[in-house]
């Protein structure tokens, strides 16, 4: 009996220790900012936006051709500006403008990333575009993977032309539990509850997901579709979480944006 009690105590203490470690260190897992980042990219202008909490953030911008939309792009958690450029080659080739957001704590930017922080970074980018003469009605907000969080929040807050989620999260706790079922939902500090917000987005919504995605699994798409029944949906067969970087997905995205009024 004593051995069983000692084992139970050990298991409880271990679980508490693991839980405490996850709770305090999870943002290092969720936001693994790459150490390398570009300073100049041909065809883009390096610009700076100012957040409400006083951070000066870098971004890359190229204006839209006449009659084309401007894409406000939020990249995935382990990506950087070079990846964002690769993920937007299709719309760029079609003449659409690009504002590639770089988060706090990424790309040499000050600050530490968090859900609230990424929302503030998105607001700073929206404000910069407005000051540059780009009205919100001409902005298509696109979010890849965890970038679907700030993308959805910006589309909820502003009257934009459209919202596009690529490999989008229904919510972060669901993604975490799909990879580690032993972690309770309440232990995940950042929520990115996109499914709860989609009904509040006035603009058209396009949801694209790889049918073979093993990181943000396709059941995330199912929950997003249930939350927004009128969304345009594309399930791309044979593609995983690399969806945004594939030529096929970019062609679909560019065609859909071109068809917007």
TrEMBL record:
Domain AB hydrolase-1 span(s) in chain numbering: 70-196
InterPro entries in the record: AB_hydrolase_1, AB_hydrolase_fold
Molecular functions per Gene Ontology: hydrolase activity
Keywords: Hydrolase
PANTHER family named in the record: ALPHA/BETA HYDROLASE DOMAIN-CONTAINING PROTEIN, PROTEIN ABHD13
Protein name from the UniProt record: Alpha/beta hydrolase
Species of provenance: Sphingopyxis jiangsuensis
């Amino acid at each position: 009996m004593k051995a069983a009690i000692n084992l139970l105590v050990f298991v409880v203490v271990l679980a508490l220790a693991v839980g405490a470690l996850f709770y305090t260190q999870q943002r290092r897992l969720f936001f693994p900012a790459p150490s390398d980042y570009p300073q100049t990219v041909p065809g883009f202008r390096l610009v700076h936006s100012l957040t409400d909490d006083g951070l000066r953030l870098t971004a890359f911008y190229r204006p839209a051709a006449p009659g084309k939309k401007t894409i406000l792009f939020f990249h995935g958690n382990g990506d950087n500006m070079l990846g964002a450029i690769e993920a937007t080659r299709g719309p760029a080739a079609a003449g659409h403008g690009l504002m590639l957001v770089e988060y706090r704590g990424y790309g040499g930017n000050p600050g530490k990333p968090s859900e609230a922080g990424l929302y503030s970074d998105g607001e700073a980018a929206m404000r910069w575009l407005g000051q540059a003469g780009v009205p919100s009605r001409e902005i298509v907000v696109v979010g890849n993977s965890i970038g679907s969080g700030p993308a959805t929040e910006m589309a909820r807050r502003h009257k934009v032309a459209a919202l596009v989620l690529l490999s989008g999260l229904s919510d972060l706790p669901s993604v975490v539990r799909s990879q580690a079922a032993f972690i309770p939902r309440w232990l995940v500090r950042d929520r990115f509850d996109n499914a709860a917000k989609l009904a509040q987005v006035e603009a058209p919504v396009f949801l694209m997901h790889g049918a073979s995605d093993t990181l943000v699994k396709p059941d995330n798409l199912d929950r997003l579709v249930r939350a927004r029944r009128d969304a345009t949906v594309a399930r791309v067969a044979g593609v995983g979480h690399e969806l945004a970087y594939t030529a096929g997905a970019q062609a679909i995205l560019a065609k859909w944006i071109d068809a917007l009024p």
